[in-house]
Design goal:
It is elongated, with a radius of gyration of 17 Å. The longest helix has 17 residues. The strands form two sheets. Strands 1-2 form a two-stranded antiparallel sheet. It has a two-stranded antiparallel ribbon with strand order 3-4. The chain is built from four helices and four strands. α1 packs across α3. The chain starts with a helix and ends in a 13-residue tail after the last helix.
């Protein structure tokens, strides 16, 4: 799953922070020593993640554009082929 953390979560999250989509009072609960997402913040984070899963990306091996949701499934199937001896296809997903 770490292969997908950067394109699916880190990049959209940093982009949303840079675009100032988060509100300290509404989206976070600050307690002594910790900061938690409020229920509104969790909804916002889930919406951000779901939107990213629906975005499309062109796969370098097969040459087609897929949603990230479908891309995860494809990469898992390619990894399965790696495990049975058909090497060379897995981990070709690269960000530019």
């Amino acid at each position: 799953m770490d292969l997908f953390r950067l394109p699916l979560w880190d990049i959209p999250l940093i982009g949303s922070v840079n675009r100032q989509h988060w509100n300290l009072e509404k989206d976070f609960e600050v307690t002594s020593g910790s900061v938690w997402l409020s229920s509104a913040g969790r909804r916002k984070a889930i919406t951000l993640f779901e939107k990213r899963l629906a975005d499309t990306w062109r796969h370098p091996v097969v040459g087609y554009s897929f949603s990230y949701r479908r891309l995860i499934e494809l990469e898992v199937r390619i990894q399965e082929k790696e495990w049975i001896g058909q090497s060379g296809l897995f981990a070709r997903m690269r960000l530019r």
